[in-house]
Write a structure and sequence with these properties.
The chain is mostly beta strands. The protein contains two helices and 38 strands. 2% of the residues lie in helices and 41% in strands.
């Protein structure tokens, strides 16, 4: 049964609840959304939380404020089976460029056939809306399930993409073991938005110069719906949704500073399901071997006691939020059917994962975990609520380092603030100018009012919200140029880049 079909069947079966025992974390509602399917944030500002809605919308949530980052609905085929907008990855310079990558199943307007997998780059257009820059398209029109669809920029800076086996049941396309197919894989590419070709093959991809597609990093997967990198170690963790009996977690430890492991690994599908031989495996599996076993799997039937079970694994992250107590360093995950949030310890130096346990928390039909650039964790429910896993106090904000680990920016030497100015249109003349200041923590010496110049002359002023956002509501009758200014200690001003607008007809 498909993952989204399972969501439909279970829609009203579970509710947010706390199980017995003391939990290291609690679930704090962030807000309500329409079919939230993924959560991430700006790499430079963890308070710019980005929530992906399955029908094609990307929403920026900043406290109670909501803003549209983009609506891809005309390109996205949703919501037959598991189709829709699947995930995004914000570019490292997202705060200045607005560039993000999106994985989705496309309509014919996106090019190709309905249901094909697309990974595209999007950035704000000077005329409003988004500019689309296609990166890669993979045929997937036969079935509406098993799309995969996770995007992550790895610690090596390259874009990793998960793809399902093409759908159906039992891998009828036999994609998992076929290295000439991009389905049932984790891919690794270097995007080149706006260029030809639109992506390059990074050095180190295992099939370069050999039989097989150059884009492939690892293979033998059924539906790797969610994978993640440990923000501290760079280890790769893949949660692969099973067929009828087993759900699995695959693990590729980092092979060095800033390097990703698992190159060329074959995780076994459709010869194996979890740690077991797949009963419906084709005869071709008899001559195959060298599979990389999962480090953990669990059954669909309930074995009783505190043991994992369910129908579709929802992979999460290695916890690096110190405020979550003894969850720190553990891999957190859930199951669509059971709804229970669980964690385990991944192997250190080989072997299997250990100490799988319930965290005493449940979410109705969880669809995805998410992580912001501060390492805080989130979980989305298909019923519409996004929650943050909250612990004691607030975490220090670890920022990505070049070697794939993390570093904490000392509070004694804060960055000089940067101003980002963008426009949101409301018809032909009305416009809202949104000013965002990063880093977001309000510091001594910062002003509490943002000024707006129009054509070089002072036009308005607006109080700075605690979330470091100010808004100006204006009418633009003709062409106009704007710049935001923030007073700082000593009488100086920090200025945004100029923003040029013209009236729409």
């Amino acid at each position: 049964m498909s993952l989204i079909a399972r969501i439909t069947l279970l829609g009203a079966c579970l509710s947010l609840a706390a199980a017995g025992g003391a939990a290291a974390a609690s679930l704090e509602p962030v807000g309500q959304f329409e079919q939230p399917i993924f959560i991430t944030s700006s790499p430079g500002d963890p308070n710019r939380l980005l929530v992906v809605e399955r029908e094609g919308r990307v929403i920026e949530a900043d406290g109670d404020a909501r803003a549209s980052v983009g609506d891809l609905g005309s390109l996205v085929s949703c919501c037959e089976g598991e189709r829709g907008l699947l995930s995004i990855a914000a570019a490292p310079d997202f705060d200045s460029s607005g560039l993000f990558y999106a994985a989705y199943t496309g309509t014919q307007a996106a090019g190709g056939s309905t249901g094909d997998l697309h990974v595209d780059a999007f950035r704000p257009s000077p005329e409003g809306g988004l500019l689309r820059e296609p990166i890669i398209t993979i045929g997937h029109s036969d079935y509406s399930n098993h799309n995969g669809g996770q995007l992550e920029l790895g610690p090596d800076g390259y874009l990793y993409i998960s793809t399902g086996d093409g759908g159906g049941g039992g891998d009828p396309l036999e994609s998992g073991q076929d290295v000439e197919s991009l389905l049932g894989k984790v891919l690794r590419i270097q995007p080149q938005p706006g260029e030809q070709p639109s992506y390059a093959i990074p050095p180190g991809n295992p099939f370069v110069g050999k039989p097989g597609k150059d884009e492939i990093w690892a293979y033998g997967m059924r539906n790797p719906w969610r994978f993640s990198f440990d923000r501290q170690s760079g280890d790769l963790v893949i949660a692969d949704v099973g067929q009828d009996e087993r759900e699995e977690i695959d693990f590729a430890p980092s092979v060095g500073s800033g390097a990703v492991g698992g190159a060329g690994a074959n995780y076994g599908w459709n010869c194996r399901e979890g740690l077991h031989a797949y009963p419906g495996a084709p005869e071709s599996c008899d001559s195959l071997g060298g599979f990389t076993d999962p480090v953990f799997d669990y059954p669909h039937t309930d074995p009783g006691g505190d043991a994992a079970h369910g129908c579709s694994i929802i992979g999460g992250y290695v916890v690096r939020d110190e405020s979550l107590g003894d969850l720190y360093g553990r891999y957190i995950y859930a199951d669509l059917c059971a709804g229970e949030i669980r964690s385990l310890l991944l192997p250190d130096g080989g072997g299997m994962a250990v100490d799988d346990r319930s965290e005493g928390l449940s979410v109705s039909t969880p669809t995805s975990f998410g992580e912001d650039s501060c390492g805080r964790l989130y979980v989305a429910s298909n019923e519409g609520t996004v929650y943050r896993l909250s612990g004691e106090g607030e975490p220090q904000c670890p920022l990505p380092s070049r070697n794939g680990g993390s570093t904490t920016r000392p509070s004694s030497s804060p960055r000089r603030p940067r101003l980002h100015l963008r426009a949101r249109r409301h018809g032909a003349r009305r416009v809202t100018l949104i000013v965002r200041i990063t880093p977001c923590a309000l510091r001594a010496g910062w002003g509490r009012v943002v000024l707006l110049n129009r054509g070089g002359h002072r036009a308005a002023r607006s109080p700075l919200h605690p979330s470091c956002v100010a808004r100006f509501h204006l009418r633009v009758k003709g062409r106009a140029t704007f710049r935001a200014l923030l007073p700082v200690a000593g009488g100086g001003l920090v200025r945004s880049p100029r923003l040029r607008l013209r009236r729409r007809h």
